[in-house]
Amino acid sequence: MRKIKFEKINSINLTDDFNDKIFITLDLDWAIDELIDDTLNLLNQYDVKATWFITHKTDLLDVLQKNENFELGIHPNFNKILFNQDPIDSSCTSIITKLIEIVGGASCVRSHHLTQSSSLLNIFSQLNLTYDCNTFIPANSNIILKPWKIWNNLIEVPHFWEDDISMMFSSKLTSQNLLSRKGLKVFNFHPIHLFLNTNSLDLYEKARPFFNDYKKLKSIRSNDFGIRDFFIELIEKCNSY
Ligand SMILES: [Zn+2]
Description:
Blueprint: E1 5-7, E2 21-27, H1 33-45, E3 50-54, H2 60-66, E4 70-74, H3 79-82, H4 92-103, E5 108-109, H5 118-126, E6 131-132, E7 148-149, E8 155-156, E9 161-162, H6 163-166, H7 175-179, E10 186-189, H8 191-196, H9 201-207, H10 214-219, H11 227-240
The protein binds zinc ion.
Zinc ion (ZN) binds at residues 27, 29, 75, 112.
């Protein structure tokens, strides 16, 4: 039986076939420290390598940076400009530059809501980012994935599974099914869904007013099979493959 290894996005090499690797990525989405800490403990417990896409400054960044299992990328939010929410922070370049500074240098980017455009891809490249992770190609499509290089040398790294989107598909894919796929296998999790063990988008909506209230979030965690259970099952399967 083949062994499946965890890898970080910045280890991606275009000539690899990726059959025996999986990539765990996490979009921070402004999670409170208690939730980041919860995800951190989960990853440490299973000794999992992961790429974190950072949204904001927190004391825990130092802890993440010092852990060799982790790579820190950036998770810029361009919705502020697109939907005119914050007239002060009005340039894409300043949003990206601020986050690169917070992280202390990054080679990966995934935008909040996967916002991308050819202009943004050029800005990413000019700011020395190497990997763009904004393309979602669902595993349900059965396309065998690999990364590719674009005109400005940026490497596109598609992901094939995302926790919140998996809840929108009527046909659910099992961890076994996903791990048996050939090609690039990038998973995208959020600390909020790992913490809540989200099993439906209704629970997520119920939690929305309490994103900063740890006690309340703790009281509404799901006991049914949810995203945390899926994560643990996936990791245990990789380790026992
Ligand atoms: Zn996001």
